[in-house]
Amino acid sequence: MDLNETRGLIDCIDQRMADLFCQRMQLAAQVARYKKEHGLPVLNAAREREILASLSQRCGDELSSYAQVLYSTMFDVSRSYQRSLMAEDSPLGQSIDQALASTAPRFPDKAVVACQGVEGAYSQLACDRLFRTPSIVYFRGFDGVFGAVAGGLCRYGILPIENSSAGSVTAVYDLMRKYNFHIVRAVRLKVSHNLLARPGARVEDIREIVSHEQALSQCAGLLAGMPEVKVTVCENTAAAARAVAESGRTDLAALSSRECAGLYGLEVLRAGVQDSDSNYTRFICIAREAEIYPGAGKISLMLTLPHRPGELYRLITRFACLGLNLTKLESRPIPGSDFEFRFYFDLEGWVGDPAVRALLCALQQEMDEFVFLGNYAEAL
């Protein structure tokens, strides 16, 4: 038998398998209706184990592990389908419907916005990208931004969430579990760090460099070439520039933006000293209430999973069944737990899609902790 004949037989088998798959899913729908009527859970772990054991034995030692992978995936797909059929409305579903109905047709041009840092901080530059005429209130730390939004002092808050070179801003992720908020917008800002000092200073005179820890991480190459220089962490890059301007020292420099050089009367000793020319920081705009504007294409979630093998895989399978592309997965340890983690997901999708809405409602009902963080657009 030649290759084409073999492939022809495989095609015939695939067609039969497709027909059988459709029949199986129709029967799974009948099972879902029965379970819903009788208040039974979707998962029957004992039955799945029995089926896997029987199929593994039937396929023999050589194909046993492959059969387990195939049918475990089949079970995941079947459960996802059943859950979508059994899903009932929930507070999350009502909240999503309310946000879709009440949100204005376009993102506002002006608002009172909380930013971390001082004038010239990258958060302020991100804010200016999102709003035409914002009224900015500055806070020393990220906690202050969350608190201002939660307390109603500011309608919105701007926070850095990740950098293309240095990774996630873990302090922001750790604060997410403490506050109730929604992400309503995001923006990517190209970040160019510069070595700034008072007029008359020279690179060879610098004995201390001050900046935010993320900026220091993004300029590791520069710092490695200046081993004799002391590195000091401060709350943000703009505060570092202001501290240099107010210090009276010519041996002190800051890693900060070119905007801060003009703002605080500093000179650029070296421009573009970040390790990568493609250095971007992603900022999120948060609000106390959910706002879902037209064009929203990214969904963010926060949740915990049972500490059992395969739980994360099974969840991702449910996303995949709806064609939801996973763009970010972040995990953070849960304080006081035994190696358990809280997960943060970014997906491409829209909650106005009934299937997506049903999945989110089902996840909220099934999980001990599940938080819908928002559905929003991201400006580039």
Structure characteristics:
single chain, 380 residues, 10-stranded mixed beta sheet, 5-stranded mixed beta sheet, 15 strands
Structural commentary:
This protein is α/β, with parallel strands linked by helices and 380 residues long. Helices cover 44% and strands 24% of the residues. It contains 12 helices and 15 strands. The protein has helices at 3-38, 45-86, 91-102, 122-130, 142-150, 170-176, 213-218, 220-224, 237-247, 258-264, 311-321, 354-366, and strands spanning 112-116, 135-139, 156-163, 167-168, 182-190, 194-197, 208-211, 230-233, 252-256, 267-270, 280-287, 298-304, 325-333, 341-348, 370-379. Strands 1, 2, 3, 4, 5, 11, 12, 13, 14 and 15 form a 10-stranded mixed beta sheet that branches. A hairpin with a 7-residue loop joins β13 (325-333) and β14 (341-348). α1 packs across α2 (45-86), α2 (45-86) runs parallel beside α11 (311-321) and α3 (91-102) runs antiparallel to α12 (354-366). The longest helix is centred in the N-terminal third of the chain and has 42 residues, at 45-86. The protein is elongated and about 80 Å long. The N and C termini lie far apart (55 Å). The model has no long low-confidence stretch (mean pLDDT 93).
